Inverse folding.
């Protein structure tokens, strides 16, 4: 640890492997590092919140892996085929296949580490239906799967002695300065409790900082989570982003007008529909019969979300602005066992899930886009890895529910292993130090707090959210997208003149989050404007059909003056085994649930 002469002062720590983010992906990476022989004192995991309080804990419904507990005919190739179909073949087949192939082993490993899965009468890991999956392959712990998963991983990491530092925000990655093909040297940030500047001088950095859906007004995460830190930090040092325009709107978010603003957009887990929940409009019509007579409520999320949005726009929504989700035909005991957290939540709001419907409408839930990585999870920047919701590639144009938790543990392990190998072979390589870049960055941050700003960061953030909701929401068109981009210019100008207060305050963090969010928002808007077709979660009202010329993904990078440049890229073909599963055309028969 050292302190340097030039103001402002900062503390330096030198872990060899720095993991930014302590959700399932980051913690799983850290476990692998230590299990592969990296001494725990050479690893450091950081998070903005208290340990155990990552967004992962909000995941409810389950985690996918073709264990075949309930449906022995399921296997990983069918899981991969379902994922590619749901992603409209804009996923990277190699990443999809890796997740599908390795997920069963990761699920069993979690079992060995003590995860409290819900079980069958025989004690096997139980599996439920989730939308657009051919078989029951979603393993779960009641409806608190994310909580149980993260607890299990943290217990494991603690038993291995992995160090964790909480309430630390990384504000910049530090590289050797080259635009493309540069090398990561560490990360700079600050302690949110004391305001102290921190420099992490590391040989490798794993970015596991979550996604970007809270750039929307109605979203299913907390306001200060999922602000796009991971993609924005990576982009700023030369990594590329892909698929940013694909934002999944979950069909069933709570409706604020009915339950109160603090609940607006919060998720009603897909497990409610997986356990038989039905959707009705205000006229009492089970409207999915019109949109998807075979798969009904369990069709792909984009299909169900657009159907709900159409019902509401057509005036068949409830007075509070939603539709009704009803699982009351199931026994109370069944609901309490399979959906305990949902039951308790609505009970506390005076609604009996076993007797009455709840009101729901679509909510921004998952950004399929993220940082481009190779098969080891490494970005274009040497030594910089990205995993979990921060990485791109697995989900394509739309994500299957239950696949993101699977991705966190599969790619967390892979990146942890790759970093461990890298450190093993690089013990004596001298590296430049990150101090100069860090000093400049800290001076910039200091200047932000020193000046008298004119605008409240939270208010500007709210405007950004409203802009995204209206210009690049479920339904998009060229005019609205262009207007969204020009609104962004104005927001950027205001973001240059924020009143942040000191570094321990809420406003300072919000200002930093806003910086990340603005970058990500621009990537989403530009991608959506360029993609002149409708596919998966991206629906253009002025180009409603899928266009085969657009069987490509969008890729964003910064050019030499820092502006975003957008390109497109073709994807590989699946392997023959997965092609065969695709050709077999497995499909969920929803009516088994009736
Ligand atoms: C309500 C809800 C329900 C869901 N249900 C399911 C489900 O049933 N099944 C499923 O598969 N998926 C589900 N998902 C998605 C899934 O939960 C996430 O994709 C997954 O948990 C992401 O894990 P992660 O480790 O990548 O990131 P996160 O769990 O989001 O963790 C990010 C970490 O990075 C830290 N961080 C962020 N920025 C910084 C920074 N600048 N500096 C330092 N640290 C930083 C955070 O503090 C946190 O520790 C759900 C999502 C939501 C919102």
């Amino acid at each position: 640890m050292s302190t340097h002469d030039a103001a402002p002062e900062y503390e330096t720590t030198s872990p060899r492997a720095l993991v930014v983010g302590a959700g399932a992906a980051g913690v799983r990476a850290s476990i692998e590092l230590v299990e592969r022989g990296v001494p725990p004192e050479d690893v450091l995991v950081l998070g903005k919140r208290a340990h155990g309080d990552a967004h992962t804990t909000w995941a409810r419904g389950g985690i996918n892996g073709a264990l075949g507990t309930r449906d022995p005919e399921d296997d990983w190739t069918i899981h991969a085929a379902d994922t590619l179909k749901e992603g409209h073949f804009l996923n990277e087949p190699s990443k999809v296949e890796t997740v599908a192939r390795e997920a069963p082993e990761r699920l069993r490993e979690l079992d060995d580490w003590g995860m409290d899965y819900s079980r069958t009468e025989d004690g096997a890991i139980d599996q439920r239906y989730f939308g657009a999956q051919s078989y029951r392959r979603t393993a779960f712990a009641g409806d608190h799967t994310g909580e149980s998963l993260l607890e299990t991983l943290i217990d494991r990491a603690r038993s291995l002695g992995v160090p964790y530092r909480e309430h630390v925000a990384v504000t910049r990655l530090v590289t050797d300065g080259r635009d493309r093909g540069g090398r990561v040297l560490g990360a700079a940030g600050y302690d949110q409790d004391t305001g102290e500047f921190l420099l992490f001088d590391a040989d490798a950095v794993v970015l596991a900082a979550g996604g970007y859906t809270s750039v929307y007004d109605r979203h299913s995460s907390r306001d200060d989570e999922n602000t796009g830190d991971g993609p924005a930090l990576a982009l700023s040092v030369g990594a590329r982003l892909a698929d940013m325009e694909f934002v999944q709107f979950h069909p069933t978010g709570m409706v604020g007008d009915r339950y109160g603003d603090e609940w607006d957009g919060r998720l009603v887990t897909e497990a409610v529909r997986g356990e038989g929940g039905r959707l009705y409009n205000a006229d009492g019509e089970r409207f999915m019969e019109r949109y998807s007579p075979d798969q009904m409520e369990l069709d792909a999320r984009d299909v169900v979300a657009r159907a709900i949005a159409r019902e509401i726009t057509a005036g068949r929504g409830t007075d509070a602005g939603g539709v009704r989700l009803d699982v009351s035909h199931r026994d109370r005991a069944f609901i309490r066992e399979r959906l305990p957290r949902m039951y308790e939540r609505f009970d506390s709001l005076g609604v009996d899930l076993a007797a009455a419907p709840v009101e729901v409408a679509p909510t921004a839930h998952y950004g399929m886009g993220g940082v481009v990585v190779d098969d080891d999870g490494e970005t274009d920047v040497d030594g910089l890895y990205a995993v979990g919701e921060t990485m791109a590639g697995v989900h394509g144009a739309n994500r299957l529910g239950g696949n993101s938790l699977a991705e966190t543990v599969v790619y967390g392990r892979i990146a942890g292993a790759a970093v461990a190998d890298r450190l093993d072979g690089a013990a004596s390589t001298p590296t430049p130090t990150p101090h100069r870049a860090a000093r400049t960055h800290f001076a910039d941050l200091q200047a932000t707090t020193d000046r008298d700003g004119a605008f409240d960061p939270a208010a500007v953030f709210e405007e950004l959210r409203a802009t995204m909701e209206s210009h690049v929401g479920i339904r998009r068109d060229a005019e609205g997208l262009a207007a969204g981009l020009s609104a962004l210019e104005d927001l950027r100008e205001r973001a240059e003149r924020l009143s942040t207060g000191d570094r321990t305050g809420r406003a300072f963090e919000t200002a930093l989050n806003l910086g990340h969010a603005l970058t990500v928002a621009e990537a989403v808007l530009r991608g959506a404007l360029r993609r002149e077709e409708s596919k998966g979660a991206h629906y253009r009202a002025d180009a409603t059909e899928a266009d085969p010329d657009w069987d490509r993904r969008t890729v964003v990078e910064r050019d030499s003056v820092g502006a975003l440049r957008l390109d497109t890229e073709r994807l590989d073909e699946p392997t023959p085994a997965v092609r065969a599963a695709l050709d077999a055309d497995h499909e969920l028969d929803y009516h088994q649930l009736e």
About this structure: The chain has 17 helices and 20 strands.
